Prior knowledge:
By secondary structure, the protein is α/β, with parallel strands linked by helices. The chain has helices at 39-55, 76-85, 99-110, 114-128, 133-138, 143-153, 156-163, 192-197, 200-203, 236-239; strands spanning 27-32, 60-65, 92-95, 169-171, 174-176, 212-215, 224-226, 229-231, 243-248, 251-256. It has a domain at 27-99 and 164-256: Metallo-dependent phosphatases (Purple Acid Phosphatase, chain A, domain 2, 4-Layer Sandwich). The strands form two sheets. A five-stranded mixed β-sheet has the order 3-2-1-9-10, covered by helices on one side. A five-stranded mixed β-sheet has the order 4-5-6-8-7, with no helix packed on it. The two termini are 14 Å apart. Mean pLDDT is 91; it is low at 1-19.
Amino acid sequence: MTPGFQSPPAEAQAPPGHGTFTVPEGRRVYAVGDIHGRADLLARLHNKIAADALNTPGFHDIIVYLGDYVDRGPDIPGVFDILIDHPLDGFERHHLRGNHEDILIRFLDTADGLDGWLMNGGRDTLAGYGIEISDIFQSASDPDTIRRSLADAMPGPHRAFLDALKIRHSEGGYLFVHAGIRPGVALDQQGDHDLMWVRRVFIDSEHDHGCRVVHGHTIRDQPQVRPNRIGIDTGAWHSGVLTAVVLEGGDVRFLQT
Protein backbone atom coordinates (compact mmCIF):
# COMPACT_ATOMS: atom_id res chain seq x y z
CA MET A 1 0.00 0.00 0.00
CA THR A 2 1.28 3.46 -0.87
CA PRO A 3 2.38 5.39 2.25
CA GLY A 4 -0.30 7.78 3.42
CA PHE A 5 -3.06 6.05 1.46
CA GLN A 6 -6.07 5.53 3.74
CA SER A 7 -8.21 2.64 2.63
CA PRO A 8 -11.97 3.31 2.60
CA PRO A 9 -14.23 1.13 4.71
CA ALA A 10 -15.41 -2.19 3.33
CA GLU A 11 -18.82 -0.76 2.54
CA ALA A 12 -19.34 3.00 2.38
CA GLN A 13 -22.73 4.65 2.37
CA ALA A 14 -23.36 7.74 0.27
CA PRO A 15 -24.29 10.91 2.16
CA PRO A 16 -27.97 11.86 2.23
CA GLY A 17 -29.48 14.32 -0.20
CA HIS A 18 -28.20 12.79 -3.44
CA GLY A 19 -31.34 11.03 -4.66
CA THR A 20 -32.30 13.39 -7.50
CA PHE A 21 -31.07 11.06 -10.23
CA THR A 22 -32.46 7.55 -10.54
CA VAL A 23 -32.10 4.38 -12.55
CA PRO A 24 -35.28 2.95 -14.11
CA GLU A 25 -37.61 1.00 -11.84
CA GLY A 26 -36.74 -2.68 -11.60
CA ARG A 27 -33.17 -2.16 -12.81
CA ARG A 28 -30.10 -2.19 -10.58
CA VAL A 29 -26.66 -1.07 -11.73
CA TYR A 30 -23.27 -2.11 -10.38
CA ALA A 31 -20.42 0.00 -11.79
CA VAL A 32 -16.83 -1.15 -11.24
CA GLY A 33 -13.89 1.25 -11.07
CA ASP A 34 -10.39 1.04 -12.52
CA ILE A 35 -9.00 -2.52 -12.22
CA HIS A 36 -5.47 -2.08 -13.64
CA GLY A 37 -4.38 -5.70 -13.70
CA ARG A 38 -5.71 -6.68 -10.28
CA ALA A 39 -7.42 -9.91 -11.31
CA ASP A 40 -7.36 -11.02 -7.67
CA LEU A 41 -9.42 -8.02 -6.58
CA LEU A 42 -11.81 -8.35 -9.51
CA ALA A 43 -12.55 -11.95 -8.52
CA ARG A 44 -13.21 -10.88 -4.92
CA LEU A 45 -15.43 -8.00 -5.97
CA HIS A 46 -17.37 -10.25 -8.34
CA ASN A 47 -18.10 -12.53 -5.38
CA LYS A 48 -19.38 -9.57 -3.34
CA ILE A 49 -21.55 -8.36 -6.22
CA ALA A 50 -23.00 -11.82 -6.84
CA ALA A 51 -23.82 -12.22 -3.14
CA ASP A 52 -25.40 -8.77 -2.99
CA ALA A 53 -27.61 -9.51 -6.01
CA LEU A 54 -28.60 -12.90 -4.58
CA ASN A 55 -29.54 -11.40 -1.22
CA THR A 56 -31.82 -8.79 -2.79
CA PRO A 57 -33.50 -10.45 -5.79
CA GLY A 58 -36.18 -9.03 -8.03
CA PHE A 59 -34.02 -6.66 -10.11
CA HIS A 60 -32.70 -6.78 -13.63
CA ASP A 61 -29.01 -6.53 -12.77
CA ILE A 62 -26.59 -4.57 -14.92
CA ILE A 63 -22.83 -4.33 -14.47
CA VAL A 64 -20.77 -1.57 -16.06
CA TYR A 65 -16.97 -1.68 -16.04
CA LEU A 66 -15.54 1.82 -16.34
CA GLY A 67 -12.30 0.88 -18.10
CA ASP A 68 -8.57 0.81 -17.34
CA TYR A 69 -8.26 -2.97 -17.19
CA VAL A 70 -4.59 -2.86 -18.30
CA ASP A 71 -1.24 -1.46 -17.10
CA ARG A 72 0.28 -0.99 -13.61
CA GLY A 73 -1.01 -4.19 -12.01
CA PRO A 74 0.42 -7.73 -12.02
CA ASP A 75 -2.12 -9.78 -14.02
CA ILE A 76 -3.61 -8.03 -17.05
CA PRO A 77 -4.30 -11.28 -18.96
CA GLY A 78 -6.07 -12.63 -15.87
CA VAL A 79 -8.40 -9.63 -15.82
CA PHE A 80 -9.38 -10.28 -19.44
CA ASP A 81 -9.84 -13.99 -18.76
CA ILE A 82 -12.27 -13.26 -15.92
CA LEU A 83 -14.28 -10.73 -17.92
CA ILE A 84 -14.42 -12.92 -21.03
CA ASP A 85 -14.59 -16.48 -19.67
CA HIS A 86 -16.04 -16.06 -16.16
CA PRO A 87 -18.58 -13.23 -16.29
CA LEU A 88 -21.23 -12.76 -13.63
CA ASP A 89 -24.14 -15.02 -14.52
CA GLY A 90 -27.46 -13.34 -15.21
CA PHE A 91 -26.04 -9.81 -15.51
CA GLU A 92 -26.38 -7.48 -18.45
CA ARG A 93 -22.77 -6.45 -19.06
CA HIS A 94 -21.20 -3.29 -20.47
CA HIS A 95 -17.44 -2.81 -20.81
CA LEU A 96 -16.14 0.74 -21.34
CA ARG A 97 -12.84 1.92 -22.76
CA GLY A 98 -10.45 3.81 -20.49
CA ASN A 99 -7.53 6.00 -21.45
CA HIS A 100 -5.11 3.11 -20.86
CA GLU A 101 -6.98 0.93 -23.35
CA ASP A 102 -7.00 3.91 -25.71
CA ILE A 103 -3.19 4.02 -25.55
CA LEU A 104 -2.87 0.25 -25.91
CA ILE A 105 -5.22 0.00 -28.91
CA ARG A 106 -3.44 2.87 -30.66
CA PHE A 107 -0.09 1.17 -30.07
CA LEU A 108 -1.37 -2.18 -31.36
CA ASP A 109 -2.76 -0.46 -34.46
CA THR A 110 0.11 1.91 -35.27
CA ALA A 111 3.10 1.33 -32.91
CA ASP A 112 2.67 4.99 -31.85
CA GLY A 113 3.08 6.31 -28.31
CA LEU A 114 5.46 3.70 -26.91
CA ASP A 115 7.45 6.03 -24.65
CA GLY A 116 4.34 7.52 -23.06
CA TRP A 117 2.77 4.10 -22.64
CA LEU A 118 5.85 2.69 -20.91
CA MET A 119 5.85 5.63 -18.48
CA ASN A 120 2.19 4.96 -17.64
CA GLY A 121 2.35 1.25 -16.86
CA GLY A 122 2.68 -0.30 -20.30
CA ARG A 123 5.68 -2.38 -19.26
CA ASP A 124 3.38 -4.26 -16.84
CA THR A 125 1.03 -5.14 -19.69
CA LEU A 126 3.95 -6.27 -21.83
CA ALA A 127 5.36 -8.35 -18.98
CA GLY A 128 1.97 -9.95 -18.45
CA TYR A 129 2.15 -11.29 -22.00
CA GLY A 130 5.70 -12.57 -21.53
CA ILE A 131 7.57 -9.68 -23.12
CA GLU A 132 10.43 -8.96 -20.75
CA ILE A 133 11.49 -5.44 -19.79
CA SER A 134 15.08 -6.14 -20.87
CA ASP A 135 13.79 -6.98 -24.35
CA ILE A 136 11.89 -3.69 -24.42
CA PHE A 137 14.98 -1.60 -23.86
CA GLN A 138 16.95 -3.60 -26.42
CA SER A 139 14.21 -2.95 -28.98
CA ALA A 140 13.21 0.57 -27.96
CA SER A 141 14.50 2.02 -31.20
CA ASP A 142 12.00 -0.14 -33.09
CA PRO A 143 8.53 0.17 -31.55
CA ASP A 144 7.04 -1.95 -34.31
CA THR A 145 9.08 -4.93 -33.10
CA ILE A 146 7.42 -4.59 -29.71
CA ARG A 147 4.03 -4.07 -31.32
CA ARG A 148 4.37 -7.26 -33.34
CA SER A 149 5.57 -9.21 -30.30
CA LEU A 150 2.58 -8.06 -28.26
CA ALA A 151 0.12 -8.72 -31.08
CA ASP A 152 1.50 -12.26 -31.45
CA ALA A 153 1.41 -12.92 -27.69
CA MET A 154 -2.08 -11.56 -27.04
CA PRO A 155 -4.85 -14.18 -27.42
CA GLY A 156 -7.43 -13.40 -30.06
CA PRO A 157 -10.29 -13.09 -27.54
CA HIS A 158 -8.33 -10.45 -25.62
CA ARG A 159 -7.84 -8.33 -28.73
CA ALA A 160 -11.49 -8.80 -29.71
CA PHE A 161 -12.52 -7.67 -26.22
CA LEU A 162 -10.44 -4.49 -26.61
CA ASP A 163 -11.91 -3.73 -30.02
CA ALA A 164 -15.48 -4.13 -28.72
CA LEU A 165 -15.16 -1.68 -25.80
CA LYS A 166 -17.77 1.10 -25.64
CA ILE A 167 -17.15 4.73 -24.77
CA ARG A 168 -20.28 5.40 -22.70
CA HIS A 169 -23.41 3.83 -21.23
CA SER A 170 -26.59 5.43 -19.85
CA GLU A 171 -29.19 4.23 -17.35
CA GLY A 172 -31.98 6.64 -16.45
CA GLY A 173 -30.42 9.79 -15.01
CA TYR A 174 -26.90 8.31 -14.92
CA LEU A 175 -24.15 8.47 -17.51
CA PHE A 176 -21.24 6.02 -17.18
CA VAL A 177 -17.89 6.97 -18.72
CA HIS A 178 -14.26 6.37 -17.85
CA ALA A 179 -12.98 9.87 -17.11
CA GLY A 180 -15.83 12.40 -17.19
CA ILE A 181 -17.34 14.91 -19.58
CA ARG A 182 -16.58 18.41 -20.79
CA PRO A 183 -18.75 20.83 -18.70
CA GLY A 184 -21.06 23.01 -20.75
CA VAL A 185 -21.00 20.73 -23.80
CA ALA A 186 -24.23 18.93 -24.72
CA LEU A 187 -24.08 15.21 -23.97
CA ASP A 188 -24.61 14.29 -27.61
CA GLN A 189 -21.72 16.57 -28.59
CA GLN A 190 -19.13 15.16 -26.18
CA GLY A 191 -15.94 13.94 -27.83
CA ASP A 192 -14.66 10.44 -27.18
CA HIS A 193 -11.25 11.77 -26.12
CA ASP A 194 -12.76 13.81 -23.28
CA LEU A 195 -14.88 10.88 -22.09
CA MET A 196 -11.71 8.81 -21.72
CA TRP A 197 -9.17 11.48 -20.70
CA VAL A 198 -10.70 14.64 -19.19
CA ARG A 199 -9.77 15.35 -15.60
CA ARG A 200 -9.41 18.66 -13.78
CA VAL A 201 -11.98 20.74 -15.65
CA PHE A 202 -14.55 18.02 -14.94
CA ILE A 203 -13.52 17.10 -11.39
CA ASP A 204 -13.58 20.75 -10.27
CA SER A 205 -16.89 21.57 -11.97
CA GLU A 206 -20.15 22.05 -10.07
CA HIS A 207 -22.01 22.40 -13.39
CA ASP A 208 -25.40 20.71 -13.71
CA HIS A 209 -24.71 18.25 -16.52
CA GLY A 210 -28.34 17.18 -16.79
CA CYS A 211 -27.31 13.76 -15.49
CA ARG A 212 -25.07 12.37 -12.79
CA VAL A 213 -21.80 11.06 -14.22
CA VAL A 214 -20.31 7.86 -12.80
CA HIS A 215 -16.58 7.75 -13.56
CA GLY A 216 -13.16 6.42 -12.64
CA HIS A 217 -9.79 7.77 -13.87
CA THR A 218 -9.08 10.14 -10.95
CA ILE A 219 -7.83 8.32 -7.83
CA ARG A 220 -9.22 9.23 -4.44
CA ASP A 221 -8.90 7.47 -1.07
CA GLN A 222 -12.65 6.97 -0.92
CA PRO A 223 -15.51 7.14 -3.43
CA GLN A 224 -16.59 10.70 -4.13
CA VAL A 225 -20.31 11.48 -4.22
CA ARG A 226 -21.21 14.89 -5.60
CA PRO A 227 -24.54 16.21 -6.89
CA ASN A 228 -23.27 15.96 -10.47
CA ARG A 229 -20.89 12.99 -10.32
CA ILE A 230 -19.76 9.84 -8.50
CA GLY A 231 -16.07 8.94 -8.69
CA ILE A 232 -15.06 5.37 -7.85
CA ASP A 233 -11.37 5.01 -8.73
CA THR A 234 -9.78 4.07 -5.40
CA GLY A 235 -6.38 3.13 -6.84
CA ALA A 236 -6.88 -0.63 -6.75
CA TRP A 237 -3.53 -1.40 -8.36
CA HIS A 238 -1.62 -0.08 -5.32
CA SER A 239 -4.24 0.28 -2.57
CA GLY A 240 -5.85 -3.15 -2.77
CA VAL A 241 -9.26 -1.43 -2.77
CA LEU A 242 -11.42 -2.02 -5.84
CA THR A 243 -14.75 -0.22 -5.65
CA ALA A 244 -18.20 -0.76 -7.14
CA VAL A 245 -21.09 1.66 -6.78
CA VAL A 246 -24.56 0.15 -6.53
CA LEU A 247 -27.48 2.19 -7.87
CA GLU A 248 -31.09 1.24 -7.08
CA GLY A 249 -33.77 3.83 -7.81
CA GLY A 250 -32.32 6.96 -6.20
CA ASP A 251 -30.16 5.10 -3.68
CA VAL A 252 -26.36 5.02 -3.83
CA ARG A 253 -24.17 2.56 -1.95
CA PHE A 254 -20.79 0.90 -2.40
CA LEU A 255 -19.14 -2.51 -2.34
CA GLN A 256 -15.36 -2.77 -1.97
CA THR A 257 -12.57 -5.30 -1.58
